[in-house]
């Protein structure tokens, strides 16, 4: 880190440590519902008269990437229910987030050939199916134990101490917040370049941390941020369409309009080494793309007429659509850049590409609006882990220290793809494969023939993905 960057980091750290704080923090932590957000008539901020006559409800879920929603483990029971279409939309939004931008790099980790997309797609569909199975298992366990969160299911089936789940509740959103900070730094730098001026990456990260992110993480009422979900959905859909146009168009091929602006031109070569340790990078990234399991009890209780059949249908629709979106973004990004694909594929596109500029802007807005939800999940996971009450003073101190540490790591680490991969390998494998299967085996539930053996296989698979995938992610970086 340069002396100037070090000085700016210490300046931001000092600002975060300032004794003045104008943000109201409630005595009890705010926990956003993963199904529906309500802006009440009376809030701490003024509401225009046209909006103050009745509560405004958004049948949307605050972003996004599954790790961001790890906080739902501590969420209260939803007071309203939603139909199957709305619940399906919420589940897709809970799974599909910024993590899908790393999937093309997962393919590039083990091959430079477009033919690699065939086994990679088969792998993604298989992992999506396994993730859907474990998500549905958590929903059934929630009904069987009458528990309201992943932690309470664990306490009812495995052990009175739920520290493994609490640790995952802390580490998963921590990794998500770190990847968000890295992506925001890259996106802000690229947007500045498109606007015609130079902004160094450290300045972008430090500026956002010391202003917008800190203020948002200190807000006591996050319900007003719910409409950001619309921006997040627009960003994902726009990016998918944009990537498809660029993958099959001439702009990034030799002689194309943006080819000369690329620091690393697209690179392709024959040969597929699918059965190699590097494939575990894609496996780990897929865990992040499909991770919404902390929310399963809330989706189960929040679904109208939540019978086992309807919840299974919700799971199939949500994870099926997530698989399709993930496959499209993975394929389009890799077909454009091949082995030159970066950890976040949007960083590959030329700064002057207007389509890329729009996608970066939409994703940046979505991530900024989602950041306090991710940070809140990490905060609740930490206080649940250390068994301490989250008082206003402790909340303020934790926010300052944690945000300063995340900002420091974001300055040192430049590859958000590595963060997504490692986080998915270690935490995602435990949450998707190990925790649900272990709870099922200890619950005494009667499953289908061979289901107990299948869950034992899931535990072994999760352990393999966690250890080997984490190690390969580190070596690959």
Notable characteristics:
about 475 residues, mainly alpha, two-stranded antiparallel sheet, 15 helices, 2 strands, about 0% strand
Topology:
Layout: H1 3-16, E1 37-39, E2 56-58, H2 84-95, H3 103-108, H4 117-145, H5 150-157, H6 163-195, H7 201-217, H8 228-248, H9 279-289, H10 296-302, H11 308-337, H12 354-386, H13 392-412, H14 416-443, H15 451-476
Antiparallel strand pairs: 1-2
Helix pairs in contact: 1-7, 1-13, 2-11, 4-5, 4-9, 4-10, 4-11, 4-14, 5-14, 6-7, 6-12, 6-13, 6-14, 7-12, 7-13, 8-11, 8-12, 9-14, 9-15, 14-15
Please tell me about this protein's structure.
The protein has 477 residues and is mainly α. 62% of the residues lie in helices and 1% in strands. The chain has 15 helices and two strands. A two-stranded antiparallel sheet has the order 1-2. Helix 1 runs parallel beside helix 7, helix 4 packs antiparallel against helix 11 (308-337) and helix 6 runs antiparallel to helix 12 (354-386). 51% of the residues are buried. Mean pLDDT is 82; it is low at 5-77.
* Termini Cα gap: 19 Å
**What percent of residues are in strands?**
under 5%
Series of secondary-structure elements, N-terminal to C-terminal? HEEHHHHHHHHHHHHHH
Let me know the largest β-sheet.
2 strands, antiparallel
Poorly predicted segments: 5-77
Quickly give the structural class. Answer: mainly alpha
Describe the global form. globular
- The percentage helix is 55-70%
Task: Give the count of helical stretches.
Answer: 15
| Total E-strand runs | 2
Rg is: 22 Å
Give the neighbour order of strands across the main sheet.
1-2
Write down the overall mean pLDDT: 82
């Amino acid at each position: 880190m340069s002396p100037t960057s070090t000085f700016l980091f210490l300046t931001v750290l000092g600002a975060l440590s300032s004794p003045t704080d104008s943000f109201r923090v409630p005595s009890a932590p705010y926990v956003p519902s993963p199904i529906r957000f309500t802006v009440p008539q009376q809030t701490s901020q003024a509401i225009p008269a046209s909006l103050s006559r009745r509560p405004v409800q958004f049948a949307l879920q605050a972003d996004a990437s599954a790790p961001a929603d790890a906080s739902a483990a501590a969420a209260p029971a939803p007071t309203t229910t939603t139909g199957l279409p709305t619940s399906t939309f919420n589940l897709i939004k809970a799974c599909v987030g910024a993590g899908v931008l790393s999937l093309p790099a997962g393919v590039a980790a083990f091959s430079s050939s477009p033919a690699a997309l065939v086994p990679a797609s088969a792998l993604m569909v298989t992992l999506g199916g396994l993730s859907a199975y474990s998500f549905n298992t958590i929903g059934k366990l929630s009904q069987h134990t009458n528990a309201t969160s992943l932690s309470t299911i664990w306490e009812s089936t495995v052990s009175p101490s739920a520290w493994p789940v609490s640790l995952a509740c802390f580490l998963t959103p921590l990794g998500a917040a770190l990847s968000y900070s890295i992506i925001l730094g890259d996106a802000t730098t690229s947007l500045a370049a498109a606007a015609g001026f130079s902004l160094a990456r450290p300045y972008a990260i430090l500026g956002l941390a010391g202003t917008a992110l800190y203020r948002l993480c200190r807000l006591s009422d996050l319900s007003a941020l719910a409409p950001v979900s619309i921006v997040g959905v627009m960003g994902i859909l726009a990016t998918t369409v944009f990537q498809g146009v660029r993958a099959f168009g001439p702009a990034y091929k030799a002689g194309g309009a943006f080819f000369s602006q690329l620091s690393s031109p697209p690179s392709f070569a024959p040969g597929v080494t699918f059965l190699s340790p590097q494939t575990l990078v894609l496996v780990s990234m897929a865990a992040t793309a499909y991770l919404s399991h902390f929310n399963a009890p809330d989706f189960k209780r929040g679904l109208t007429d939540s019978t086992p059949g309807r919840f299974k249908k919700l799971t199939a629709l949500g994870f099926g659509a997530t698989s399709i979106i993930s496959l499209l973004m993975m394929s389009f990004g890799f077909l454009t850049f091949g082995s030159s694909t970066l950890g976040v594929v949007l960083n590959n596109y030329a700064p002057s590409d207007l389509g890329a500029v729009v996608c970066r802007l939409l994703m940046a807005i979505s991530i900024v609006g989602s950041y306090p939800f991710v940070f809140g999940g990490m905060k609740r996971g930490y206080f649940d882990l250390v068994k301490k009450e989250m008082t206003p003073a402790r909340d303020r101190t934790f926010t300052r220290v944690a945000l300063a540490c995340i900002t420091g790591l974001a300055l040192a680490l430049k590859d958000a793809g590595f963060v997504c991969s490692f986080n998915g390998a270690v935490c995602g494998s435990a949450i998707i494969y190990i925790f649900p299967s272990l709870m099922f085996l200890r619950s005494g539930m009667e499953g289908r023939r061979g289901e107990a053996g299948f869950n034992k296989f899931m535990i072994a698979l999760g352990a393999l993905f966690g250890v080997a995938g984490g190690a390969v992610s580190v070596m690959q970086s």
